[in-house]
Request: fold
Amino acid sequence: MAQRILRFPDGFLWGTASAAHQCEGGNANNQWYRWEQQGRTLTGEKSGIAANWWNEAEKDFERAEQMENNALRLSLEWSRLEPREGHWDSAPLERYREMLTDLHRRHLKPIVTLHHFTEPLWFADRGGFANQGNIRFFVRYVTRAVQELQDLCDFWVTLNEPNVYAVLGYQTGSFPPGQRNLLLSLQVLRNMMQAHVEAFYAIRRLQPEGQIGYCLHYHPLDPASRLSLLDRSAAGFQDTLFNWAALEAAETGQFPFPLNLLLASIRRAPGARDYHGVNYYTREFVRFDPALPAEAFGRRFTRPGAIINDPGKQNFLGEIYPEGLYRVLKEVYNRTRGNKPLYIMENGFTDTIENRRPRAVLEHLAMIHRAISDSIPVRGYLHWTLVDNFEWNEGWGIRFGLIELDPETQQRTPRRSASMFGEICRANAITEEIVERYAPEAMDAIFGSNGTARHQVTV
Ligand code: BGC
Reply:
């Protein structure tokens, strides 16, 4: 019988993403370590030895290889490489060289993030990215790291999610340094976008052929009622602020009105990226609320009745909304006039008991396929994440891994999604047979109830 199939383009990158502090363990010289020691994570938990990648990353790389991934995104821990200002440590560099060499051996293309939320204490204590004068330290570190590792990597992410870093660290105060100051948070966002541009040119000089970009977190914010002008205005303003301001500044050098009245333009911005990095997890609705001036008069909530990630933890990550990924890809493409390829640098689900993840992964991948069929050049998908890791303020209660980790014993147990993801990567496609075995309830969403989903083919 003919089998329906969604085939991905040749050379599509399949892999997982992670970050140094969440996986390596033993990071005791960055601002997150201090935050944990001060007991400021929500659960009081600490990263500890995390997933023990500092000693044994290769064992997990082998698991990624067995899943027939062809890429893997990780980050460098700046606080290891430059533990004191201007002082470089060669031992961690050697360790990163080992890790990247091992990835090559396993045919996993390394995608290396240079800053994923953590920075050395000395940098944080000088004001971090809140201080424009500190951008030069970041660029100096990036230059050094790329000089040392350029024979092993040609795909760089300068900064992970400046919008999340700025909002959580400086607006809601739930990440270090725990500030609540909207203006400062905007300034941090502006400085990070400038830091990206300068890092881009520093890397470009060293590696003219490299792929250099940054990624933003995209989180659709829809009005509670489309009929309400107030809801639409509150949602629209939050949406611009969180989702589009940084992208616009990166593309044009100018923040959108009225932010451009407050924030200096980004020098040399246009053209300073080789791809658009998209991180997508969920969406929320926004209702106008006069009692919330600090949140631009918008109260956010998860759609009642939505299928949500982890029912016990819905305050962290609510709705599973595959179409949101399609919407985000389309909007990034339109806003950038299709000028560069797109990579999903992160997408994942917090399903501790693994009863929603297989379907969610399939439906999100189908949305990527739909985008590609609409001629949006999406070139890769990196799932967040390979092995459960330390989820920042949420500690160990939030489980994003394709593979379950017991942080006490370091025991790994692959979830069903791991074998499913492996089959998809191997086939470079989603087949009807894979859907049938892992999430038959997703069949209609993926192939269309009468087999007419316009982006599928039949073989
Ligand atoms: C971050 C990751 C984090 C993930 C899940 C992203 O915003 O880049 O570090 O673990 O979301 O919350």
Remarks:
- The longest helix spans residues 182-206.
